[in-house]
Amino acid sequence: MISLKRTNLAMAVSASLLAVITVIAVSKGAVEIHLLGMTEVQRDILLYVRIPRVLLAGLVGASLVLSGTLFQYVMKNPLADSFTTGVSASSAMGAVVAIMLGLGPVLPVFALAGGLTGLAAVYKISSVRGRVQPITMLLAGIVISTFASATISLMKFLSDDAVSSIIFWLMGGFQSASMGKVATLAGVLAASFAVIRRDYLSLDIICFDDTTASSSGVDVARLRRKAFFIAALLTAFSVGYAGIIGFVGLVVPHVVRLLRYVKAAELIPLSLLCGALFMILNDLVARTVLSEGQELPVGIITSSIGGVFFLYLLIKRKKELYYFD
Amino acid sequence: MIELRGIKARQGGFTLSVEGVTLKQGEFVAVLGNNGSGKSTFLSVLAGLRNYEGGYLLDGRDFRELPPPERHGRISLLPQMTTLNMPFDVFYVVLTGRFIHTNGLNYTEADIEATEQAMEALDITHLRERQFNELSGGEKQRVLLARTINKDTSVILLDEPLSGIDILHQHDSIRLLKDLSRKKLVMVVIHDLSLALREFERFLFFTGGTLSYVAGKHELEEERLSEIFGVRVNFLRHDKGILVYTEGR
Predict the structure, then answer these.
(1) Looking at the domain assignment, is residue B105 inside a domain?
(2) Domain CATH code at residue B200
(3) Which of B44, B87, B99 has the CB atom closest to A216's CB atom?
């Protein structure tokens, strides 16, 4: 089939790009590293700083994109992602609570609990008969995000020693990367992907209204619960390890969709690769654009690059590709 | 075969009630009634999409006891309104009708072949590559009809499948459904009384949420229909059958 060939080609192209960018990203930074002929110091930087950081950026990018894509499927809403649904902020709130209680090691559990609570609230507020109203969802997401951010600020106010680490949740970044985090997130992402790829056909069918989807033989309620949980899980780990980074989960799947990869079997794997690519690129820019080893928060870059590209595609091709009803 | 006894289904202030009726494979059944009379609710109860009280046997087995995959494997439903929020092409939309025949992971060659046939039957092969959401109302309806038929179940429930379809394709669609009803139970919600009387053999009429009148083609009475629809119904007989002429109040 032609579409399969086209997809495989796109996968091959994005995987090669990902490999190239990864190599560039580990060699560039405050200290330039030539992969052939390294000094001992350079090798230590490469192994303990650069590689974990680049890998974590890639994994967080892929995770946020998978969670955003799943939110868009189950909420039947093109504006949904972990950021706009308030799940990121509520996960961050959970993470900060864990720090305040001195429970750093189980931080992702708290982040997940926070994220699920926020998600349940937003879903409850904005759904009418199983369909999430886009505008209400955005409003509810803003309210939940604001509430979660206010809570984080309050905790920051109440406890001075935790300030610096708390600010990190709100800004986002990969400074605290480690191989342990890389391994954990890789495991979570691989497991999530393995589970959800068995539901590609069902995910396509829930793009129809619920009555049509149910009578087609898809257990809509069960799939929705499963996808929500996986999306919240990926958000919780991403936020737990890299703070709140907006926009990636929204932009990347849209771009892939605008390139006419619209079936879940094409859209999801391609989005994952592009998400990793996009985030590594953003982090690379964030840590190399200023001189003398200074860093910009990566969220600023994701929002600017992502926003401009998204706007361009949206204006050019919105008519043919977006039908909300 | 569908056997219903003392069915009640409530939603808000509305109650659907069906005292009793038996519907068999090989029947081509028209479901009629004014707006809000319970036709769509009736179909969604039959399709297992709504809770109900009472007895519903499908091929002799209690419908409640059937696991959902088995229910959906026996009954197809074309709802009155279908929305899609992904820019799928027409071929894929029709192909998704085969979901219950898959292992959940892949569509097979057999599914693709069945899809080609369903598209041919509904004369939509030329729309194959088009985006579903770009089609006209009538074209969409034919695509959805093909999708429903593609599911290939023994019971087919269609909620106003002919709305928006041009006369040429209405004739084709009806002929196709009639052919299918030789081996299957096909039930169609329809508003056009003349068309219904010409093509269908059995009729279910709903008024105010109740299945109020079940009749065969030759038992239909003008008086009874006038009561049901709230307009004066006249049968104009001619050599090709019956034309229905209605007069408003």
Answers:
(1) no
(2) 3.40.50.300
(3) B99
